[in-house]
Structure formats: C-alpha cells, structure tokens
Amino acid sequence: MSQESKLDMLQFVEYSDDNFRVYKCPLCKTGTIKVHDSVFYGRCDSCLATLIDYKPLPHQVKFHESKAKFKLNIGGYGSG
Ligand SMILES: [Zn+2]
Description:
Layout: H1 3-8, E1 11-15, E2 20-24, E3 32-36, E4 41-43, E5 50-52, H2 58-65
Antiparallel strand pairs: 1-2, 2-3, 4-5
This protein binds zinc ion.
Zinc ion binds near residues 25, 31, 46 and 47.
C-alpha cells in the first residue's frame, strides 16, 4: 500500500476557526488529531499517536520507499 492511498483513507473532519486541520484518529478511531496550518503533524488527543498529514509528491514517495541504508536530501528551503 502506498503512502498516497494511506493518506487518502484519512478521515478529515474540518478546518477549525483557529487554523487547524482536524482528523479522526486512524489508529484508535475515537480521538481527534489537530494539525496546525503551519506544520504537517499533530497528536491524537486520546492515544497520543502522531499523524503526519503532508501528501508527498511522486519523487518524495520514491525517497520514502527507498530501502537504502543511508538517504540524503540536500537543497534550499522548500526543495524537498
Ligand atoms: Zn488515537
């Protein structure tokens, strides 16, 4: 299963008024995870699972799927 399809299974709840993306927790299915607009991660308020909600581009998926022992990503701000 690829990263993209896992992200597509995320249950988005709402954009809160205070700039959070709110999801239902895919792990415990009872808690909610709030990800602030300025970052790509948040924690479940019930089971403390950390969710990363950025959607990788195709070249980023290849990077994540690489089984290389060492991985190096070099670039200026925003080049990843
Ligand atoms: Zn949870």
